[in-house]
Amino acid sequence: MRKMATRDELLAQALRLAPEDRARLAHELLDSLGDGPPEDVEQAWGDEISRRAQEVLDGTVELVDFDDVLKKMKERMEQRRRR
């Protein structure tokens, strides 16, 4: 009879997967925990988008250039890889 892998063994195997496969696995695992998103999720996202758009129009938020955000994200990812 084959021994079932431990959580640590499964994690080690999962971390060796390609990023796309890890993302798909994570999504499937999260989906397995419940019945999916609440029925009102679309309404909640619509409300959030409206709120954020209004903040931009009102000038109450600081806009950040996408290239700057992308650069910072890449720097953070590189720092995490080095750990």
From TrEMBL:
It comes from the Bacteria. It holds the Pfam family Unstab_antitox. InterPro entries: CHP02574_addiction_mod. This is Addiction module protein. It comes from Corallococcus exiguus.
